[in-house]
Records
---
Amino acid sequence: MVLQMSGATSTRRAPLLTIYAALVFIFIYLPVVVLILYSFNRDGVGGFPPRHFTLDWYRQLFADTSIWDAVENSLIVAAGSVALALILGLLAALALDRANFPGKALFRRLVLLPLILPGIITGLSLLMFAVFAGAQLSLFTVFLGHGTALISVATTELFAGLQKMDRTQEEASLDLGATPWQTFWCITLPNLKLSLIASGLLIFTLSMDEIAVTFFLIGRDNTLPLEIWGRLRRGITPEINAVSTLIFAVSVGLIVIWYRVRTRGLGAEAQELLERP
Amino acid sequence: MYSRTYKTLVSIPPLLWVGVFLLLPYALMFAHSFWAVHEGVLVHQWNLHNYATLFSKPVYVEVLLRTMRIAASVTLCSLLLGYPLAYYLSFHAGARKELLYQLVIVPLWVSYLVRGYAWKTILGSEGVLNGFLQYLHVTHEPVAFLLYSPFAVVLMLTHIYTPFVFLPIYAALEHIPRPLVEASHDLGAGAAQTFLRVILPLSIPGLLAGATFAFVLSLGDFLAPLLVGGASGTMIANVVQSLFGAALDWPLGAAISVCILLVIISLLFLTERLEKRWSFK
């Protein structure tokens, strides 16, 4: 499938297109750069150019307990959502890959719906359900909401992993007398390792950042995005730039980890291919 | 190869969970849209009153039309930015391709809220852009129309959805067999002709997927208008949100949500059809 283009066509110059692409990159990165720059600006957000460098906003941020409470809440919700979405997403992917049942097509569409629909629709539906079921809104309802909505991500990723997987290994395992349970633990799961890590990281970041669904399911304790949201309504301070810069740094860190994991995984596969007689 | 028990065990839990925590909530929203509120209390009385209100009051229709306009602008702008970028990466970036691809992905991981907030600090009347313009002596007074306008909403959402539009287009472009492009050149077609007759038609499925995504998610966005939209940038999801909040008329809010949902589902159905028609297999 990988068909190389001949040298003559690939090096064709397109100066206008290159400039345009550079401008699009500037547009994509401008807000991030501005955000980071002004988190070190003594005179606050806005004005040009930023003049006096300071770390005061970070100091203020580290002393701000309600932000750190919110970070803790977000971490708890995200970790729970990863567990819930991975377990149910794995089962759903296995079901879609291997079982036939009435309503399978509908089930597939339904699982993916929260990924495609705007958050407000899923959020409000879950709010109505919580009220209907008589549940008190809290971090627990937020966790249920995130976990359920993000099953979509886990299912897509793990289903793709299953489709790529070599079935003969499982067959061999079952033929050689391993129980289905042993086959699942020793063959299926290890084969899905990369998809599991990838979807786990993605679910974690999406949950940490989720706001539209959380907005309607939140009780008294805030998650980090909602804490920031609450402060934005009161006015803007560089403290928010500081916390945003840290979030950005953590996200980039997670991406780097993910690429390390992925390339190491690919490296192992390549190694195996080379060592094969 | 897999036993009946295996299939049952993997199917039942997700089916039950999705049934209870997704299907039931969506169904409840549908049911709410046919109920009513009397003196602040929900009455389970089936009627079409909410839908009648929705289509008889010009306010709702007006906001809905504005929302469609904003979503269409966002889609168009994201395509105008995302398509050339994908084309550049796929055909002209050479060895830097992989790195540039990662650079487009990175901002996807940066919080939606954080990016919205950044635009707020850029566009505000005390903001960075106004500071910059005054620094250059282009203007002497702050330009106030930038923030709290439909323009700001379109700008912010375009910024958010450009990478999302880029991704499927880039994937589609990467899947175009290069010999087709070469054949076109060899047979005497110029760059423009090759693009219009070979590359563009083959990238239509990716283009449709990206455009649908941007349109659908912009259509239901309520955070961008709250952050940077102001009163003139109010969108339909803000109306829903206030009906569920301060205005406390859940059935009417549910009816609007159902309408948004129907628009989205018919759109998804339509683009799925179109994608199939244009796909190259």
Note: DSSP finds twelve helices and two strands in chain B.
---
Amino acid sequence: MLGKRSFGEKIFDGANIVFLILLVVATLYPCLYVLLASISDPAEVAAAQGLLFIPDKLQLGSYALAFSNPNIITGYVNTIIYVGLGTALNILMTLLGAYGLSRKYLYGRNLFMFIIVFTMFFSGGLIPMYLTFKALGFYNNLWAMIVPYAINAFYLIILRTFFQSIPDSLEESAKIDGANDFVILFRIMVPLALPAMAVVTLYYAVDNWNSYLRGVMFLQDRSLYPIQVILREILIQNVVSAQNGDITSEVAENVKYATIVIATLPILCVYPFLQRYFVKGAMIGAVKG
Amino acid sequence: MLREVRLTGRLPVTARPEWKGDAAVRTMTGKAANVATASKAKESTLRSYAGFLRKELRKNKYIYLMLLPVMLYFVVFSYFPMVGLALAFKDYSLKYGLIGNILEAPYVGLKHFEAFFAGVAFKQVVVNTILLSVYGIIFAFPAPIVLALLLNELRVKWFKSMVQSITYMPHFISLVVISGMIIDLTSINGLINTIIDALGGSKIMFLLEPAWFRTIFITSDIWQHIGWGSIIYLAALSGIDAEMYEAAVMDGAGRWRQLLNITLPSLLPTIMILLILRIGQMLNIGVEKIILLYQPMTYETADVISSYVFRQGILNLQISYTTAVGLFNAVINFALLVLANWLSKKTTQSSLW
Amino acid sequence: MLNISTEKKKWSTLGIVLLASTVALGGCSTGGETKPETEPAATGNGQAEAAVDAPEPVKEGYPIATADQPLTLKVWAPADNILKYYKDYGEVLAFQEMEKATGVKIEWIHPSAGQLQEPFNLMVASRDLPDVIIYPWGNTSFLPGGAQKYVQDGVIIPLSEYIDYAPDYAKVLEDYPEIKKRVTDDDGEMNYISLMTPELTMRTYNGFMIRQDWLDKLSLPMPRSTDDLYNVLKAFQDNDMNGNGKKDEYFSSTGMDKGILGIEKLLYPFGATAGNDAFIQSGGKVIYSPMQPEFKEGVAYLNKLYQEGLLDPEYMLNDNTKLQQKYTNGTVSVSYSSAGRIASWQPGLKEVDADATLSPIPSLTGPDGSGYWLEANTANITNPGVSLAITTANKFPAETMRWWNWVFTEAGKTAFNYGKEGVTFEIVDGKPQFTEMITNDSQGRTQNEMLSLTAPAVGLPTLNELEATRLQKSEAEWNAFETWGNNMLDNSRIMPPVMFNDSELDVMTSKKPAIDDYQKQMLDKFITGRTSLDAWETEFVPQLKKLGIDEVTAAYQTALDRYNQR
């Protein structure tokens, strides 16, 4: 924040930093625990009873078990494709919808909003969805994972809120200069709404990455399975192995942690790239133009 | 003005009208004007309404074009399957497929709803659900906002970045693992009780006491999601014009004033929209976390609609029953949303429609 | 002025184009054929006509199909065990042998590992039926109305009229009337074929387990009654067997709904039980166990253990994994368990404590030396959770029965239980032994894994042979099976898997969930002492009656009567 810091403000700053450090510790704890548990001996994990511990011996057995499943590579590749294509479609559709619905002068705007919000509450259920999508040809192929999930109403509303906060004068002056709505959207509005777009991109990317139900319901070919389905299978198979006595339950438990790390690490790498869009002052100068 | 109109096919901004609704009389100056008054005959009103529609479509044709695939998507992928809601009023039978069921299965009216309402624990689970949601709104909803504001106050960039990057991570850990941790931490020999013991208090078996359930549920919620939830507020904060702050400082405003007069009002639309949507989730307490943390002795505070229906379903597998309960939830939730939307519109001018 | 109609045309064209492209994009690479590909079956006189006009299908003999008259069946089956390594069951040795012998080709459809009900429900709802479905047809908690409902609703067909085409299977039913009773419904129809485990010691995979090494260290004999157990638990604690200075060597269990090793099992020695399956029967009469004085006795015992700190104070929060961790940490000494776990939990324990040994407790009786065994699984001479049914979409039901019948022929039994001689097993001293391929796989796969990839009798509706089961299990595991099997207490009180008709189901669905919830809450409250046991008479039983237990009991009674008349 700008301005001189008084003494009171310095106290506040100090307290703020302390509080945030505590928060970091509290939120880092579970992540470290999961990481440690995945590379530690199961007996030590049992002994630790939830507390962080320094492992005596490190072992990569749980990862070995997880990766011993040959389907994991195809799973990764498939998911990367689904996330890439899917998120691109998501952003495009959501942009169009969010911008269009943010124009206050649009006749029917409220009706459209009502129609969209209504779908957030009322759904026919899994079976009608399954039958509809299947009848349209969205079954057992790449598009089944992408097209039926093209728009999330919640995210559309968020993006719309951001578009609404951009001053009208920008649009007006652009129109006076002869620009049509598409040009305005892509040349002017999008650059201004980058923080919101980054957030919504992140949301969609994470949703696509985590998608499990879609894969199980609409894919029959194992070669099309995304990573989450494979990871769930790995977990189940290890639980069964444990029941059969092939591996101990604790090892099966550790595989659970390993699968979390495997599933989450890639997404954690995406966030830092998007973080730079949350930079203050992206709007400066635009209004003046 | 004429030249502008010919070039762009549009009126300059100042001259463009706003349609205010059926009952109001629309008046306009300028070339592209059609006047309809309430006193005209119905047929010509209809015709002029159609004309009005055509004008609007033509005027904003690109916007409507943008919305076309979007609305199409919702119609095809959300509204088509919605016919399944009819199953809530029928006795689902395996004899027919889905369409067969909708058309031919016996109509039973409100039978499934009555079964739900008549359940012994109905009142209890609804109350528990609402209480958990309300506590969530009071405590868990503001938490990410507060975090975003605190982060905003930081001047050291790398620290801010680090805090952001770490605090959002627990969001990705699966509920099964988080619940396991909660059980460990709150167990009789767990971390929390050890601290209590060290401070001289008496140990509490947290997850065995109905009185503690809500606290644990909400607190762990905040713990897991505060970082992820703050992302959107940070994005909103980054969009605030820095010049406003400069001006405020020149007027002698301190940080607190700046917060009240600039930051919060700028965040208000985002906050209100998210709040409205959250109120629309009032009856949706997810079943997974509840099932992992509860056990029969804590049913009286922990049992919510979703977990109750889950246990019923272990015996039933009745598609009609679960559809009916889902519909009930949806109707109540939606009504609450409409109410929240209306209130917000009246007080803060932010609303969904 | 712009021409309105051309505008309109432009939009509608665009709209249609958009919609069409979406559908086309999705539609052009549609996978998943939905029609079963069956072709005319062989008949005795070599006609290759459509099956509809064919003369009476051949009753016996293999092969069923030949190159001239091929037959392909579409089969939906869970295959969690093999999906890690194989695409489908077609790669499994036993099925390859089956194809060689019968000539029938199979198109397998497997749901993703861990998914069972959802894919099944979707398949049935969309009426996208294969020829054969392997599913828990006999498990009434998956299918409350029983497989009967699916027959009535036109999903599967009854098998009784085709039994002639499966003579080897029919013989098994003759040899074991109890099996026949289990796969027949109340109307005398057989709707599915289940996995069969005729010998008792093949099914006794659950029982109590104890830290043998601690018993040995204190020179204590194996506890055989609940009084013995009490003394042993006390001795473990007084002697601080885990050496941490605290009295925390417990008897434990999982929470009733959190794992299958629940607290209600320790009521068995008293002849009582609890939880979602708390109905027992005595001489054909249905009894709700929690209303019996035996229940009160058992709960009083558990309460005593709890008050004296001998019972894990947080047992209701345990799941199976937590329970194992507590064993590893030495905070649990006795619990209910399974044979597989005795084998699989031991290595983890041994890492922490090299002397640690887990042993099965042969049986536990009540204080007077008598006891009952109420674990339903043990009585299951068939496993209803693994059953095969023929769908209404199947155009060759007779051939299908002949096909699956092969599993019960000598060749079939050998293939599914042992595999192929010379490849997966050898005869040594007149008895089969698994070869190195199974026991010592080059890729490090375990014996169980290798068997599921070659001779999967265990996971399919086959006849499991005692000798094969013995071979499959490790020594520790088989020892548990036999110990529990040979010391089985009176198990005549177990409620058989009855089937409910519609009116009984109505009573159950409206009343039983609330009764179960209440009973489970009160059980925990009684055990932990939060509610005094005096309330059993004054509050508990009356409240159960108020919730309608008598009507539910009556529903069970009529269902049991029908079962007994099969």
Note: The two ends of chain A are 26 Å apart (CA to CA).
---
Amino acid sequence: MTIREKGYSHWDGCLSARPRPWWPITRMGIGLMLKKKPFRFFYYGGFIPALAFLIGIYISERIEDFRYLTRGSQKILEVNPAYFKAYFTSDFLLFMLVVLLAVGGAGLISEDLASNSLQLYFSRPLKKRDYLFGKAAVLAFFILTLTLIPGLFFVVFKLLFSGSFNFLSAFPWLPLSIIGYSGLATVFFSLYGLCFSSLSKNRRYVSLLIFALYLLSDLLASIFYDNSKNPVLTLLSLKINLQQVGAGIFKQKPPFPVPWLWSLFVLIVLASAFLFFLRRKVRGVEVVK
Amino acid sequence: MTTVIETVKLSKWYGSVLGLSDVSLKIEPGIVGLLGPNGAGKSTFLKLVTGLLKPSLGSVSVFGEKIIGNYRLFARIGFCPEQDSFYDEMTGWEFLTGLMRLHGYSAAESRRRATHALETVELTKDRDRMIRAYSRGMRQRLKFAQAIAHDPDLMIMDEPLSGLDPLTKRKLIRLIKNFKAEGKTVVVSSHILPEIEALTQTIILIHQGKVFAQGDIHVIRDLIESHPHLISIKCDDPRRLASHFLRAPDVLKIHFGSDGRSLLLETNNRDQFFGRLTAVLAEGRFAVEEITSPDDNLQAVFDYLIEK
Amino acid sequence: MMIEVRDLHFSYGRIRALEGVSLSLNEGAVGLLGPNGAGKSTLLRILLGFLAPQKGEGRVLDYDIRREQAEIRRSVGYMPEDDCWIAGLDAVRFVAYFGELSGMPRREAIKRAHDVLFYVGLGEARYRMIETYSIGMKQRLKLAQAIVHDPRLLFLDEPTSNLDPQGRKEILELIKDISSAKNIQVLISSHILPDIEAVCSAVVILNQGRLAAEGNIQSLRELRFRLYETKIKGDGGVFRNRLEENGWRVEETEDGLTKIFLPEEANIVDLFRAAAETGVQIRHLVRSRTSLEDLFARTVGVD
């Protein structure tokens, strides 16, 4: 039997390229975010609308049982695409997503900048796009769980409670709309949060900027609209753009008399701008000074 | 020898955190190395000596006067701190001339002094660039320049050579030695023991808020009785050489090197040992290559004094 | 050969960073020296697989420096000069995370993180948050994340900066131990020459984009004639006269050293005889070599 020698020992495994090099970053990011109490509070709070709408689906199916509540008005709760649109474009949900960006997402890249750990990341065989994708996936996870997952749940529950596939045959495009809108929201908000996070080493400053863009854009739009009554000016507001697109995707009438494709265009342009600045900021990292 | 700095039972604590405890010492002209582990109290000591802190107990006087609030005395002291904080939007030139004006020199005199100081640290060609564009080494040199530009009699330098490449270090070491030759006093605090050794043989070692040793490194080493001196000898026949010392009462241990050409002895009386060694080697039966004292250096002194 | 490169050239726009550098390095510790702006960082970026040279080629760890950069980076460990951490993590998770990012499977990364943290002396503290670490501990942590994936090429950038004497000594010992392990090449960049001397067996000196000196430290520092540095106790004047009577040259330095030039035909024994006869003890005798500092100054062409 030999004794273990003190001193440096080698590892007997072998290093290999992994199929998803960004995965440890995403896993770590999600873990770190969920550790923070404020984040957990707002994240779980973001499920309140989903819960409410789920109960609404239940009620609408059992409307006979609840007839005593309605006293006459029949169609108080009909589950149709308008219902879905109401969930996905509710002020509360959209604002919650922005809060999550500010409370959790702000630190994603800005903390790495402040703690100088980018040089540790990039001294590994990690491409810049893996790093960015891994970070974006953290935000995407939380956003998808608040949009796509509840959306699909609603469909499933509706089918379960109504006991038939009538709903789906009536609106076969609905699941695609859900996926489409969730995807758009996820990509947009992830890039939004990540871009701002890369702008400064100061996490609180980034949070402030994230809120500022969302709230101020809405404020400006409503000021200009109130003044001139020109609906195109509402495209200044991020919130309104999202709501326009949501309405369009769910085949409802948009809240403002502006084509929803214009709103989609604005969102795409913004998202591209976010991506552009994001890549530029992280490009400046040099390993080995 | 006039005493430049004198402290009497100097103590300082921050709330319940101890900085320095009961330090009484005198510093004379020349170069003194100040060393100690992190948190030992070195920065506290330097801040007390430069009047940036008030003592909790005891007193500190510089050039015979109390330093606290003594603005006239500040003109005779140059301080090169460890921290790096400059007005990044200024150029090196603006910074240095500005500081000189603050000292009360006329505009022309300030310019003259700034020019001279910048030349000394070799920043002349970069003087009109903004400090924001300076590299680490340049910032360090600027710090050095502002500490010497007003021709102080006492220089307090906290890690003055950090971030500098070896050649610049050499030049600045020579410069500091020139100050000593001019009769000035320099107190250098550093973690890099070989750099202190290159500057001076006189040290003050601070640990746990107290002065553990003060004076010449070799004298201190001699005083450390718990660690007998190590002598390393490289020769062709170490075992035969060792046989001459087996009966010597001052030799405590003999250790043979694994290469078969060296031995390490421990002795508690160097005088007796070296007397015997020189005599033995003069007989001419050994081909000796090297004689050294591996623990007669600052690192060993530091270790022996600090160890628990 | 761990590193074998020929004729590397690289320019950033009009700034020529490297102009024809060729190197051959083996296992062990190599010191990388040079004034600022000499091209060190550029050379390192090429050797560590972050940059492709514009001209010239070579192999590092047996991978081509142009075509197989990702493989090189996989086997490279980097210990940066400045502070770096990740908020909210303890040491084990921090080190394991970066091990995973280097390509280790998760469980292996965790296991090895523990081993490596014990090795660098952070065993007791490894479950604590890294924000609570002292400077010395953070330095060791940086070293730990650099070696967790068992790299074959390890680059240490100013590994002893900001450490107190105790910390410096301990880090240098760790580096010496790692350098003596098989199958690993250690490159150290430092301005503190005594550290390089303590740890490295070879040295590479760059200046203005070219190689100014390269080789084994011992042989680079050898002097061709026999010059001895001595420290004596006793009457130096009489001793010196005695030696000069023999026709030897004697110099005294300001540090209290006596330098003695021994001619070819003389024997070192004569030195001791002269000492014994004049009642002087010889307490220190070392064959003089150029100091690393002088070597640096000579090769960089200033002074």
Note: Residues 23-284 of chain A form one domain.
